[in-house]
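Methods — Computational structure assignment.
A single polypeptide chain was analysed. Its primary sequence is given first, followed by the predicted tertiary structure written as C-alpha cells.
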Amino acid sequence: MLWFCAELPAFGLEVCARRMIDDVRPATLVEDNRVLACNDAAFADGITIGSSLATAHSISPGLVHFCRDVAAERERLRFLADATYRFSASVSIQEPSAILIEVDGSLRLFGGLYGLKRALIGLLGELGHRADIGIGHTPLAALALARARENCELPRSPGPDGIKSAVIESLRRIPLQHTELDADAVERFSNMGIETLGQVFRLPTAELGRRFGPKLLDYLERISGQKPDPRILVTPVERFTAELNFLQTISSKEALSFPMHRLARDLEHWLIGRQLGVMRLSWRFAPFGSTATTMEVEFARPQQSNQTLLSISRLKLDALDLSDEVLSLRLTTIRLAPWQDENRPLFGRAELAGHSPAELIDQFKARLGDDACTGIRTRDDHRPEFAWTAAPPIIGTATQRDRPAPRSTVRRPLALLRTPKPTRRRQLTLLRGPERIDVGWWSTADVYEPKHRDYFVARHANGSQCWVFVDRNGDWFIHGYFS
C-alpha cells in the first residue's frame, strides 16, 4: 500500500480567513492571547509567531485577528476530505489538520506518483489551503514525513520493498516532535540525548517497553509497517452545504461576488469528486436581525463549472431585492444529477452567439424569470391540442418517459393555432387525407353525441400549406401550418 498525507500547516488561519471579503488585509490566528499563525500581509508588517496580541496590533493597526475555531476546522477538514475523494475511495482524516489518502490504485490514472502529488497540491491550493505532502508505506509514516516536510526520494519504478526501504530511511531523520508521540515521551527522550526516530529504532525493544509502556511500541510497529494500522474511511455526504459568516455586513451586490466565488469554487470541486452535476441550487443571504432572503437558481443541464454557477447566479442576483446588509451567505444544492461530460466534435462547432443552447436558456431564465423559457413534452393523448404540454427546458437529462415519441408516418404541423381559424372550402386545395380524429365525446354531458373531425393536408389560396379539418356540421377550420 502507498499513502499520501496532506498536512495543512496554516489550516486554522485559512479556515477563519474565509470570513474576510478580501484576502489582502493582514490577519493572524490567536490562542491564549498569542499569535499562532500569520498570513503574508501580517508577516510583511513584521508580526512574528508567538507575539502577544497587543504587540501585533501595535505593529499593524489594520490587523484582523481570529480566535481559533476548532468546530469550523473540523467541518472544513471533512469538506476537503470529500473533495479529495476524486483521487481515491480510501480517504481518512487525521485531526487537527491532515488528510490521508491511499493511492496505490490511482497512480496510473493521474500520471504516476509525482503527477498525483502535483494534482493534490493544485486542488488544495485552489480551495485556499497550502499543503505539505508526505508519501509513505503506512499512514503514520506519511503523516510524520508531511509534518517534518521531509522529501522521501522514492525509486523511479518503486516496488513495495523499494518504497518501504526508502521511507524507513527518511523516517530515521525525522525529529521526534513531528511524530504522534506525546510531549512527555518526547521530553524524556530529549533528556536522554535522543532526538530522532532513527535513534529510537536502534534501541532495544524490550527496554523501550519497560520504560515507556506498550503505547510507544504499538506506535513504532504501526509507523514501520510491522503491524496493521486500520483507518476509518470517509463516506462522502449526499448534499453540499457551505456557509460564510462575515466580519462585517456587506451592502453591495458587487462585494458579494468574492465570497460567492469562494462557495461556487468549493461546490465545483465537491461535484467533481462525486461525479455529479447540479441542476438546482439555493443561495441564502442572511442580514443581521431580520429575515433571510433565499434565491434559487435552476440550470437547463447539469453543471460543474464554478464560472457557470457564478455567472448565472449573479444575473439572477441583479434582479433580487436585497433590502438589508448581508452578514452571512449560504450555498446549498437542491437537485443533483449524474455527470456526463459533453461530447464535442473533433474540429469544433460554432454555437449560437458563442454559447451552447443550455447556457442561453440559463441566461434567459436568470434575466427574465423562471417562466421565460419552457420546453415541450409529449402527452399520452390522441387529440392534437392535448398531445403536448409545457415542461422545464432541461437539456440532455430527459428520462425515458420524457423522451420524444418515435417519428410517426402521419404528417403533423410544427405548431398548432390556439383556436382553430374558420376558412372557406373553396380557398383550399386538398393534398392528403382524410384522417378522422375523435375529439372527446366523453368530455360532454351527452356521451352518445358523435364528436369527430376529418383532417386534411391542404394548400391555401394564399400559398401556405396548412392542416385543416371539417367538422360534422360541414364547417372548415385551419388548425395549424407546416413550416
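Note: Confidence is low (pLDDT under 50) at residues 349-354, 397-402, 445-449.
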